[in-house]
Every structure is written in structure tokens, then in C-alpha cells.
Specification:
Layout (H helix, E strand, L loop, with lengths): L1 E5 L3 H13 L3 E5 L2 H10 L6 E4 L8 H11 L5 E5 L4 H10 L3 E4 L4 H18 L7 E4 L2 E4 L4 E4 L2 E4 L2 H12 L4 E3 H7 L9 H15 L9 E4 L3 E4 L9
Parallel strand pairs: 1-2, 1-3, 3-4, 4-5
Antiparallel strand pairs: 6-7, 7-8, 8-9, 10-12, 11-12
Length: 236
């Protein structure tokens, strides 16, 4: 497995590189976004996971993450940042990161998260994947991260897409906020129940005919949500 560290603090980058190599990973470390993108384009074997700082010289980590997602929608990205505000974390998820850890961090936790992300990525990639899923007036394209809602095309952020895909995979089940936090966000620090509700509302604005009376992503009072692909006529 090959890991790319994008971190301009050289001592930290060297320390992480050493520890991941001790775990048996092949590790590259660069100090800015353009160098990271160049390496991703030319790496052989390809990179399996990116550890990304946000406060990089020149191109920010946010912008770097967007460019990574333009190249590869599935490559796991874990942000490591001293930024602790919830809006910073939300912006990182909007750019396509999978998980977010704040500095300083505990090495065992970082190693564990990397292992889990790599295992999840391996489970999600083998075998042919469905190209699309249709419910109601919505067509979901699993390869382009796009929704086609009666001819209107919406580009989803990675987190919006993963949340919608989780709902689809568990169609009909009542999903608690704790389950969503664990399985979609990986129990990332700073993501709260309110954050989950905000992401659900963003999806509803795209897929629901009437946002105030949802037919597909239903609220279950005091628990969480339930996704219904084909609701009964007249029920919301």
C-alpha cells in the first residue's frame, strides 16, 4: 500500500513517513499541492491514500483536495489540520475529504484510521459496481457523483454522495444518527448530529419535490432517518 503525505512542516512529515514505513507502507512526502498532484498523476504503483494538511503554501489543502477529486472520486483522503472550527471541517468534507483529524493527534489513532480507510476502500472496489440507481424522479450516477432530477443535473460533494449511497444501500431501514456518523463519517471529530441534519437537508433540497414534506428521506423522531425509494402514494 502506498501513502502520500502532503505536509509542509518537514519535521512532522518526516516523523509520519518514518512511522508509516515501520508499518510496512510505501510512503511519499511532499510539501505543497502542485507536487502532490504531479506525484498522483505519475505514481507507479498508484497512491492508495492521501494524508493532507490544509494550510499549505500557495495552493491550499482545500483546493488540493478538489483537484484530487477531479482525478479520482474514490481515493481515500484524510485531512490532518490545526484548524478546529466546525466550518473548516465542513468545508473540507465539501471538498471531498473522507476523514478529518485535528493536530496534535495521537499516532495510534492515526494509524488506526488509515488502516480502516484502506480496508473500506478495498471492500468497496472489488467486482463490478452498479453504474446508476433510479428512484422517484431521480437518477443517481455512481461514477460521476451526479444526480439527474428530471433533466436538472446536480454535482454532489463526496460526503453528500456517500450519505445518499448509504441511504440507498440500507433502503427501508431506520438509520440512527450514530450509525450515520460511524459508517459515513468514520466518527470524525467535530461532526455532530446537527451536521448530519444539515447534510440531509442539502440532499432533500435536490431530490425532494417538496422539501418541507419529504417523500424519500424521512425523519424518524428521536432516532434518525429512513430512506424510501418508492413511497406510497399520498404519504410523505
Amino acid at each position: 500500500m502506498r501513502i502520500l503525505i502532503v505536509e509542509d512542516e518537514r519535521a512532522l512529515a518526516r516523523g509520519m513517513k518514518f512511522n508509516f514505513e515501520q508499518e510496512g507502507y510505501q510512503v511519499d512526502a511532499v510539501g505543497d499541492g502542485p507536487a502532490a498532484l504531479d506525484l498522483l498523476d505519475n505514481a507507479d504503483p498508484p497512491v492508495d491514500l492521501v494524508l493532507l494538511d490544509l494550510m499549505l503554501p500557495g495552493m491550499s489543502g482545500y483546493e488540493t483536495c478538489k483537484h484530487i477529486r477531479d482525478r479520482d472520486t474514490e481515493l481515500p483522503v484524510l485531512v490532518l489540520s490545526a484548524r478546529t472550527l466546525s466550518e473548516d471541517k465542513t468545508q473540507a468534507f465539501d471538498c471531498g475529504t473522507d476523514q478529518y483529524m485535528t493536530k496534535p493527534f495521537a499516532l495510534p489513532e492515526l494509524l488506526s484510521r488509515v488502516r480502516n480507510l484502506l480496508e473500506r476502500h478495498q471492500r468497496n472496489t472489488p467486482g463490478p459496481q452498479p453504474q446508476a440507481y433510479t428512484f422517484g424522479r431521480v437518477r443517481v450516477d455512481f461514477h460521476s457523483y451526479q444526480l439527474d432530477v428530471e433533466g436538472t443535473i446536480y454535482d454532489l460533494t463526496r460526503t453528500e454522495f456517500e450519505l445518499l449511497r448509504y441511504f440507498i444501500d440500507h433502503e427501508g431501514n431506520v438509520l440512527t444518527r450514530s450509525e450515520l456518523l460511524r459508517d459515513v463519517w468514520g466518527e470524525t471529530d467535530g461532526i455532530t448530529s446537527r451536521s448530519i441534519d444539515n447534510f440531509v437537508m442539502r440532499l432533500r433540497r435536490k431530490i425532494e419535490p417538496v422539501v418541507s414534506s419529504p417523500r424519500h428521506i424521512l425523519s424518524v423522531r428521536g432516532t434518525g432517518y429512513r430512506f424510501v425509494a418508492e413511497p406510497d402514494t399520498g404519504k410523505g
